[in-house]
Write a structure and sequence with these properties.
The protein has a five-stranded antiparallel β-sheet, with no helix packed on it. A four-stranded antiparallel β-sheet has the order 3-4-5-6. A two-stranded parallel sheet has the order 1-2. By secondary structure, the protein is an alpha+beta fold. The radius of gyration is 32 Å and the shape is globular.
């Protein structure tokens, strides 16, 4: 009977919502239902916010049910933005209608800003002050971030440009928040020993788009602690560590009891859970991120040591970090409390080597050299984080494929947050900005980020005058060039000087010699690189040398390349030139005996390159569609792409049939 009443009412509600003056009989039928049934109907998910607004205006009883802080508007908010509910406490008073309006407004603002980025920054990296509009937004930042996440999670292979810039904005917002938290963390007293918290900040900063939190990582470690306690109970059922409550611990002084904890830890970590040092892929940044160490169950000495240290301390074993050269270690005191101790009163633990316990001599044997007693000393949180970031910095300098140098940029930011007066790193950061072309928009004065850095360097170390002067000169030259820049260069395929260009932007290609898959995002009728690049790449050995079309391509391995249309000559004898018609009906001049570098990929696939969205708005399954900014530069290419795709893939389909 109640179900029938609900069904009948469900039919009445939309009708009332759509009519300005509902019939008295229909309204009476609805409002006479029990309050719980009415609330159930209004929270069923079949009504939109607009529907709720109209329903609440029909009569006093429905208006009371749809009050701004009530369950109906809370459900509307939850269904629309479920990920935001974790930010609200069940005990807090919340005006859900007002929250809905603010979140809706933030979403519109976010989309407006994302839509503007491609037009503003298509020709350059997003500059240092490019995010100023975002920093001045009104309303909760979590609402703005949530809308960016919604854009990133849009289904399908469309809106690629929106996703590209939404990702950049979200990356920036979260990094700024994490960096502020890290700086506040570093202001803690030296005896504040939350090594794990500091390591998580580093993890979060380098992976701002991942859902990483200290709470989640601590929960995973707590589950390991539970396993250790279970094993420890089998060793000593009355062990004092078993009485520790979650989140609480104290240090155990008896060496024998401490040893039992370490034995149980080694069994659980290395035998049961199969944690191990990553010897096969040692120079991988993932080894330094705590959430990845827990997922992959592997790491390098410093990350494995932090995990080991955290578990041991939760169980009452007062291990300490040792900044040992080439191999981070932990030390375990064997001397009496209050006694004068030296380095021989400790056992040193190698968490990378399955918790092996070492003497001083064995530590030296581990790294193959004698070291002074000072290097066996304990270090504070800041020194531990310095070493972690230093490792990331070294890996960032080794980057080959990632032309954005994101790891290097992130590790420089982190290191300079801890030690802002490191002259050589400031110089490196200035060179990196210059190399990547990250310049503030519409700003041609000495407030540029690069010049700020250089001025700071000059103050710290006047001896760097030469290097600073060189970078300042090139920065000012860049500003002058920006002043002289004219409008967008438009390349028409129909123009006579472009007659030899065979391919168009958006086509999925395969390199004949190197075998990589790529997508074309630009072309030049002749090589536009400098003389040094042409000489180093031996371009003169190609037919027609640099006087032939070259293509800008995004490669599946994340690199960007500049590929010639024609490769080296073959062995064919005869005339010097043949004439080929391309898909737009134009004639291209190809030397006889030569072959093209690129060929159409008859099995096209998405190109996993981070900059695809910068140039293209959609992947159709056979080709990419250029976004507005790229299409302005190559207005005739899209038609050529359609013809090419039709010819290639229609012919392939006919052959298969």
């Amino acid at each position: 009977m109640a179900a029938a009443a609900v069904d009948t009412a469900m039919e009445v509600v939309p009708a009332l919502a759509e009519e300005a003056a509902p019939e008295a009989a229909g309204l009476s039928c609805l409002v006479n239902l029990p309050g719980e049934v009415l609330e159930y109907i209004l929270c069923s998910g079949s009504l939109t916010a607009a529907d709720i607004g109209r329903v609440s205006s029909t009569c006093r009883r429905l208006r009371e049910l749809c009050q701004s802080s009530g369950k109906v508007w809370k459900e509307q908010f939850r269904v629309r933005w479920p990920s935001l509910m974790k930010h609200y406490s069940p005990t807090d008073y919340v005006n859900w209608l007002e929250e809905y309006k603010v979140r809706q407004k933030a979403g519109l603002e976010a989309r407006k800003i994302v839509a503007s980025f491609s037009k503003r920054f298509f020709s350059e990296h997003v500059p240092c002050n490019g995010f100023s509009d975002i920093e001045n937004l009104e309303g909760p930042e979590i609402f703005f971030e949530d809308e960016l996440v919604c854009i990133l999670n849009m289904e399908g292979r469309k809106a690629l440009t929106w996703k590209y810039y939404a990702k950049k904005i979200l990356y920036y917002l979260r990094q700024q928040k994490i960096l502020n938290n890290l700086k506040a963390f570093l202001q803690q007293p030296d005896d504040y020993e939350s090594y794990l918290e500091g390591a998580v900040y580093i993890d979060q900063y380098c992976n701002p788009l991942s859902d990483i939190s200290l709470r989640d990582i601590q929960a995973q470690i707590d589950s390991i602690v539970e396993l250790v306690c279970k094993t420890l109970r089998g060793i000593n059922s009355r062990h004092p560590s078993l009485a520790f409550k979650a989140g609480e611990s104290s240090m155990i002084m008896e060496i024998e009891l401490q040893s039992q904890v370490l034995d149980a830890m080694n069994y659980v970590l290395y035998d049961q859970l199969k944690f191990k040092g990553n010897r096969m892929d040692y120079y991988n940044a993932l080894n330094l991120y705590m959430h990845q160490v827990l997922i992959r169950r592997t790491g390098i000495p410093i990350s494995m040591s932090l995990l080991y240290l955290t578990i041991a301390r939760q169980l009452g074993v007062p291990l300490e970090p040792v900044n040992f050269p080439s191999h981070f270690l932990l030390r375990w005191c064997q001397g009496a409390e209050g006694a004068t101790l030296d380095i021989f009163d400790y056992i040193y633990i190698d968490a990378f080597g399955k918790g092996k316990q070492l003497t001083v001599k064995e530590c030296e044997y581990l790294i193959g050299q004698h070291v002074t007693a000072a290097l066996y000393g304990v270090v504070n949180v800041k020194k531990v984080l310095q070493r972690m970031v230093g490792n990331l910095l070294s890996l960032g300098k080794r980057e080959g494929i990632d032309q954005s140098y994101q790891l290097l940029r992130d590790s420089l930011d982190l290191y300079l947050a801890m030690y802002p007066d490191q002259v050589q790193l400031l110089l490196l950061q200035a060179r990196l900005y210059f190399h990547l072309g990250i310049w503030p928009e519409k700003s041609f004065c000495l407030v540029l980020k690069v010049l700020d850095i250089l001025q700071h360097i000059q103050t710290l170390d006047p001896g760097q005058h030469g290097a600073v002067g060189y970078l300042v000169q090139h920065t000012l030259e860049h500003i002058e060039r920006k002043k002289e820049e004219v409008g967008v260069e438009v390349k028409l395929r129909s123009h006579e000087k472009h007659r030899d260009v065979c391919y168009a932007i958006g086509l999925i290609m395969k390199h004949k010699r190197y075998g990589y898959n790529c997508v074309i995002y630009g072309w030049d009728p002749t090589c536009m690189m400098g003389h040094e690049w042409i000489r180093n790449m031996n371009v003169h050995s190609l037919p027609h040398g640099h006087h032939q079309p070259f293509y800008n391509v995004l490669v599946e391995d994340g690199s960007c390349r500049y590929a010639a249309q024609v490769a080296k000559r073959g062995t064919r004898k005869g005339g010097s030139v043949v004439f080929l018609r391309d898909d737009r009906g134009a004639t291209a001049h190809i030397p006889v005996g030569s072959r093209k570098n690129l060929e159409y990929n008859v099995e096209p696939q998405e190109i996993s390159h981070p900059d695809v969205g910068r140039y293209f708005s959609e992947f159709t399954g056979t080709h990419y569609i250029p976004n507005t900014e790229l299409e302005i530069r190559y207005p005739e290419d899209l038609e050529s792409v359609y013809e090419t795709v039709q010819n290639i893939y229609s012919a392939k389909k006919e052959n298969v049939e």
